[in-house]
Write a structure and sequence with these properties.
GO cellular component, one term: cytosol
Number of strands: 17
Structural class: alpha+beta
Helix content: 10-25%
Shape: globular
Oligomer: single chain
Radius of gyration: 23 Å
GO molecular function: sterol binding
Distance between the termini: 29 Å
Family: Belongs to the OSBP family.
Protein name: Oxysterol-binding protein OSBP
Organism: Trichophyton interdigitale
């Protein structure tokens, strides 16, 4: 799901009033309203009541993510948004993409990664981190044991060897066969209780031969930067040189309060996650985000639900996956069900957007399960033999390795917010709110100076969204590439640089 920056529009994210993607904001120097709370600890239910009272002011506003207002420190989680949000909750799943020699297996490995990227919402509660300021950045490494095996397919699956015949027959199949694929199977999957134990023929991990040697340690590096604030956009890049895997994209959301929940959708620059496999002839996979709902405001227990469709595509292999997140009933216990299909498609004429419209002759695999528990796949010629793709039940988000405090720059997330974070942890909320307001005012002053001098903000590590021939795919600058390469070697030294307006920002 899309990044949750500004689920409630905290002005610390928008106070800069400057944008490399959309230009300056005439109202950049205006001071957003504040909400004062007593300087005492606030429990979760009190936080939700305060959030709800604020959100009620925005009923009918088309995008509250673009509205600036200042939240008191008591309502914030003491963590920077750029640090909190990333798609590497389980880095070993990312590092395992591309292991399979079968192109269907590789798409299933991408799906396995997909179902681990939002563990923070599965295992924890939604929270409101600090919104990012313009030019803020975060970098880190993960070092994990390479314990995720390649997805192993049953011997009867010959997706690679039959690719040519599938391609040749695609046109004929689309005109001759409009029948729904395995309608009964999907209907059954959508109704069955997820807790019921399915018949499992094998699992992807168990199918692999056990190894007596200890797993290799794999390093994955990550850098993200807030590149714009009107609209608020950040760029990210993930790199695993040992496996030849990269991921990149822009994060931007649109949020609307419906009266009982907040609907979160991808913004115009957020076209998904783009994963490239250098060791597989540069196969590129695009993963789009479904809409999500932040609910539980009235009950006093925040939760994230998804009832939408998303798509994973690989033009080079001509394989596409459709995932449909099913809506839970109002009175039933949430089961977080998802069904899906993997099939052959024509990248030059991609017209299939619903599972039921997939020609049966193009179907490669079916997906079913709960994205909070276990996900299974089965092949169309053996629909009752379900194979475990991923079990997220025992998993928790992995820890990051960040630069030492003395190596962090002024606009590096942890250092930028360090004093505010310390005050919140010490329950000195008045101090934290005052420091936060000072940071916001500093950003507004810098934005006004840039506007006065006709200086446009230029990101340090990434190019801006409008400069790209391929939309949705950020590019690293020379500084960005150097910073990422240094991360691979645990070199955290970076120089502070003057911005166009003469400020030492990073």
């Amino acid at each position: 799901m899309p990044k949750d920056d500004a689920l409630v529009g905290d002005s610390s994210g928008d106070s800069s009033g400057d944008s490399s993607a959309a230009g300056g904001d005439a109202a950049a120097t205006s001071t957003p309203p504040t909400t004062d709370l007593p300087d005492k600890p606030v429990d979760d239910s009190s936080k939700l009541r305060a959030f709800l009272s604020i959100l009620r002011n925005f009923i009918g506003v088309s995008d509250i993510a673009s509205v600036r207002f200042s939240l008191p420190a008591q309502l914030l989680e003491p963590i920077p948004n750029l640090e909190y949000w990333n798609y590497l909750d389980r880095p070993e799943s990312f590092a395992s993409i591309g292991k399979s020699d079968d192109e269907l297996g590789r798409m299933l490995e991408v799906l396995r990664f997909w179902f681990t990227k939002d563990l923070k919402y599965v295992k924890g509660k939604p929270c409101k981190p600090y919104n990012s300021v313009l030019g803020e950045f975060f970098r880190c490494n993960w070092e994990v044991k390479d314990t995720e095996a390649a997805v192993s397919l049953p011997k009867e699956s010959k997706s690679t060897s039959t690719a040519a015949s599938k391609t040749a027959s695609r046109t004929a199949s689309r005109t001759a066969s409009k029948e729904s694929i395995s309608k009964t199977a999907f209907r059954t999957a959508s109704k069955e209780s997820i807790s019921a134990a399915p018949s499992i023929a094998s699992t992807s991990a168990a199918s692999a031969s056990p190894s007596t040697s200890s797993p290799e340690t794999v390093k994955i590096s990550y850098i993200t930067e807030q590149t714009s604030h009107h609209p608020p956009v950040s760029a990210f890049w993930v790199d695993c040189p040992q496996r030849g895997i990269t991921a990149r994209g822009f994060d931007q959301i649109s949020a609307k309060f419906t009266g009982t929940s907040v609907r979160i959708t991808p913004g115009q620059h957020n076209l998904g996650i783009f994963i490239t496999l250098a060791h597989r002839d540069n196969e590129e996979y695009r993963l789009t985000h479904p809409d999500a709902h932040l609910g539980g405001l009235l009950r006093g227990a925040l939760s994230v639900s998804v009832a939408d469709t998303c798509y994973l595509t690989c033009p080079r292999t001509r394989i596409k996956a459709i995932l449909q997140y099913l809506e839970d009933g109002w009175l039933s216990k949430a089961q977080h069900r998802v069904v899906g299909a993997v099939f052959r498609y024509n990248p030059d004429n991609d017209t299939v957007s619903r599972i039921k419209d997939i020609p049966a002759t193009d179907l490669l695999a079916e997906i079913s399960g709960s994205w909070h528990e276990r996900i299974y796949f089965n092949l169309p010629n053996s629909p009752k033999d379900k194979h475990l793709l991923i079990d997220v039940t025992p998993l928790v988000p992995a820890s990051k390795i960040t630069p030492p405090a003395e190596k962090q720059l002024a606009y590096e997330s942890r250092r930028l917010w360090a004093d505010i974070t310390a005050a919140i942890h010490a329950k000195q909320y008045s101090l934290a709110t005052r420091l936060k307001h000072e940071l916001e005012e500093s950003q507004r002053s810098k934005a006004a100076l840039r506007k006065e001098n006709n200086h446009e903000w230029t990101p340090r590590f990434f190019t801006v969204a409008e400069q790209h021939i391929q939309p949705g795919r950020p590019h690293l600058t020379d500084d960005g590439r150097r910073a990422l390469d240094n991360l691979h070697h645990d070199i955290f030294d970076l120089d502070e640089k003057l911005t166009p307006s003469g400020e030492f920002a990073r």
